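Deviations from the work plan: none for this task. Representative record:
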Amino acid sequence: MAVELSAREIGDRVGAIVDACASLEGPLLPILHGVQAEFGFVPQTALRLIADRLNLSRAEVHGVMTFYHDFREEPAGRHVLKLCRAEACQSMGGDEIAERAKAQLGVDWHGTTPNGAVTLEPVFCLGLCSCAPAAMVDGRVVGRLNDDRIDAVIEQVRA
Amino acid sequence: MSTLVYVPRDSGALAVGADDVAAAIAREAAKRKLDVTIIRNGTRGMSWLEPLVEVATPHGRVAYGPVTVADVVSLFDFGFLKGDWHRLGQGHTEQIPFFKTQTRLTFARCGITDPLSIADYEAHGGLAGLHKAIAMPPAEIVATVTESGLRGRGGAGFPTGIKWKTTAEAKAPQKYIVCNADEGDSGTFADRMIMEGDPFVLIEGMAIAGIATGSTKGYVYLRSEYPDAIAVMSEAVKLARDFGMLGPKVFGSDYAFDMEIRSGAGAYVCGEETSLLNSLEGKRGVVRAKPPLPAHQGFLARPTVVNNVISLASVPIILDKGAAFYRDFGMGRSRGTIPLQIAGNVKHGGLYETAFGLTLGEIVDGIGGGTFTGRPVKAVQVGGPLGAYFPRALFDTPFDYEAFAKADGLIGHAGIVVFDDSADMLKQARFAMEFCAIESCGKCTPCRIGAVRGVEVADKILHGEEPAKQIALLTDLCNTMKFGSLCALGGFTPYPVMSALTHFPEDFQPRTFAVAAE
Ligand SMILES: Cc1cc2nc3c(=O)[nH]c(=O)nc-3n(C[C@H](O)[C@H](O)[C@H](O)COP(=O)(O)O)c2cc1C
Ligand code: SF4
Ligand code: FES
């Protein structure tokens, strides 16, 4: 499923992203976001290229990347389902919704279904706390989750 | 003439189907050959009514909600385009009690205008503050903000004018305005709503801050969990630049100011201002020791104002209407208005802007209408994950920085999360520790290690292992975290934990587990 990319291909595409961010003050986060948007994760080879271009050590770039929850070292599933675990959603039964989703998908937090369809991730607040419990599916927001609504979301992404 | 129909684009409305409703209205209008223009406004903040569809009638805007796609045909049948009766009808939007009783200063336009129309923005009072600021000596802008009594809405409540003055007086070739749009606190969404619903007011506030302090560059550090807000803000910045509101000569003046939107990367601690600055510089989001203050050495070690979205978005009206106008609202040392965010298990949730001073009970029982489930309110967490849990016994606490501090709590970013009597306060205390452990930047031991220990101790209490000893240990741990942490993540996590323990001790007692009949 995942297309193997040659080091050269990664190099060209990462180079273009770094070029586009070259004039920014503090370019590293925009570059990492750009790389992740391009490949779906941040490939190891990209770290060295970014480090060289920004005059940083590879360890520094790796340290930054691993500090933030957003950046992945491995590709995610075809869909990413983020469920809010924070307090307002808890007060509306978010924990039960999460348990239901885990059971239906057969994965725990950060897990990907064996068919590569869905990665389940926790998120701490989506700013939808007055229509809780809330979720995000591939960047799209969903609120007022109940058993039916979470089942419908899972149905859409699990295939 | 075309009839104007408003369907919000706020993510709170999108999350419950607003895009589909807008599309269904467009389809049905086309089918009936009716001339309808759909405007995607921000939200009025009445979340339980979303998607709230409004129709402009000769006698004002009339509201219907919550509308689903299945309701659209009947809305047309019943004549909603003329504002006629329908079972989802809410009457005139501005007469809905939740809306009518507010004092909307910062959110004056949110939900009313098209967020991405500068013409609409200006027609509803926008840009007046910036034009006045351009004509004033910068020191006078700072003095106006100081006199207004505006305090930082990000949580710490530091006087905004004093912060600006420090940066204004700092000498450096380049200074910055950094807007903290990390809004990580659960139960809060005011920043998101203003950015999605009235982005130009934030841009205007930042431009005024730039002129006042001699800063020519601004950044909005916006959390990645808000892709819709990022999209609206990015588009608004482009439009503002084209309009001459941003650029080398702001509206033809001698002032330069421009700005960029930067996305966070999913770290709660990056809402802390020094961690945010490290993140903006492309580093790990580790908290910096203060001093130096960001006002002296902030972004790239240059003088930087770091302000919350709502602090900055409140500036235009202060400049427009004057310091005294704003100052006249509120109580004690909490001046002006505060956008309350009423959330969680509540009947009428949403954004409610009002002068400081309402009691917690008036907010939760009165405005919020009690719980969504209809069960009794057990606890209310105020001020996000680092805020205290309040029992009903403290419902007479007025919404004011000092009064909340006196009650061993904080108002933080003014998020209010309601729990009914099914809440388990030991579980909530455990979660506070777990959250701290997940989000700790790792710089200091009490936070990094203490939070992990806190989770273990909570688990032992749950399993009835020497509960008295564990409760003493938890209290001790909280003291260590409170006094030994560098920032409020480790330092304030004891608030939810200790308030849960103090006000709900019964939830920390050994449990008699019902033995399941197998
Ligand atoms: C752990 C932590 C998280 C914070 N998160 C935010 C946040 O999301 N948004 C915010 O405006 N301030 C946040 N703050 C407060 C900021 O450090 C800072 O006080 C604020 O940005 C100053 O702006 P103001 O004076 O306009 O409130 C946080 C503080 C801490 C300790
Ligand atoms: S209290 Fe926690 S988050 Fe704050 S500086 Fe210390 S380790 Fe970092
Ligand atoms: S707490 Fe879940 S969306 Fe805010």
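Chain A touches chain B through 43 residues (CB under 8 Å).
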